[in-house]
Automatic annotation (TrEMBL):
Protein name: Uncharacterized protein
The species this protein was found in: Archangium gephyra
Transmembrane segments: 145-165, 177-197, 209-234, 240-262
Biased composition (Polar residues): 1-10
Region (Disordered): 1-29
Superkingdom, natural source: Bacteria
UniProt keywords, alphabetically: Membrane, Transmembrane, Transmembrane helix
Keyword flag Transmembrane: yes
Length: 276
């Protein structure tokens, strides 16, 4: 009796006609909404009758990391395009942030070499307006200007032998000259232009590294000056000792540039509070 009841209960259940009928009741997974690209957001801001919400969306899009397939060069070109558009760069979001200032800061966030494409004074203005730091006092700006002038001058003098060597036209000499010029640039002009950028101001180790890159090459110049003076004293040709002023001056220029550009290390970030 009981077996018959169980049999009737089983036969009362409708059998699915196909596998699709079973899967039909399963809800489809929620698809992740694809965010518009910074380029698309920029075009919306350029359209007539732009609203504050569209400006906020552009500011948010510029702060996002690089998207799939997007290169740092493409993002940098987009930021430069914003800076060249007088209307777009003056738009202000609901939080008071100006599009032009955000574009400058994002160029600094991209790092080398894109941070070099921003003038230091423009970057300082963007940091001040965005609340990342106080404006540099006039005395500090003067010191940085002198430091940049010193490193540029000494780099130009040190590159002169390589330039004359490259004029010879031989492939080996040209390669050697290019390597020499690159080394001089990395220890003079490049550290001078990076002194006020965000990566250097926020990283003490990078600040110290660039200071050493500018100052350490002064030691060979001091050694050359000492050799010239000693040679003049031992041979009795005292007028030749005046030639030591050239390497001595180049060494002092390097030390002065390192002091003016990287005299005081950046403040360390306060430690994050420990969770109880």
């Amino acid at each position: 009796m009981m077996g018959g009841t169980v049999q009737r209960s089983r036969s009362a259940l409708p059998a699915p006609e196909s596998t699709g009928e079973l899967l039909g009741d399963i809800p489809e997974p929620v698809r992740q909404v694809e965010l518009p690209s910074p380029r698309a957001l920029l075009e919306e801001v350029r359209s007539p009758g732009v609203a504050r919400a569209e400006v906020d969306a552009l500011l948010s899009g510029l702060a996002r990391p690089l998207g799939p397939g997007e290169s740092a060069r493409e993002r940098a070109d987009l930021l430069h395009e914003i800076l060249e558009d007088e209307q777009v760069r003056d738009y202000t979001g609901s939080g008071g942030r100006r599009v032009g200032h955000v574009a400058v800061l994002q160029l600094g966030e991209l790092g080398f070499p894109y941070a070099l494409e921003v003038p230091p004074e423009l970057y300082a203005q963007a940091r001040e307006a965005d609340g990342h730091g106080e404006s540099m006092p006039m005395q500090g700006r003067t010191r940085r200007g002198w430091g940049l002038a010193m490193t540029t001058l000494v780099g130009g003098v040190e590159a002169l032998p390589a330039i004359f060597l490259a004029l010879d036209g031989r492939s080996t000499e040209v390669k050697l000259a290019l390597s020499w010029i690159l080394g001089v640039a990395l220890t003079s002009v490049v550290p001078g232009m990076l002194a006020d950028t965000e990566p250097v101001l926020s990283r003490r180790w990078l600040h110290t590294l660039l200071r050493l890159a500018v100052g350490l090459p002064a030691l060979p110049w001091f050694a050359v000056a000492a050799i010239i003076v000693v040679g003049a004293l031992t041979t009795g040709a005292m007028p030749w000792a005046l030639a030591a002023l050239v390497p001595l001056g180049l060494g002092l220029l390097r030390l002065g540039g390192a002091s003016f550009l990287y005299g005081s290390p950046p403040d360390e970030a306060p430690p994050e509070p420990q969770a109880d």
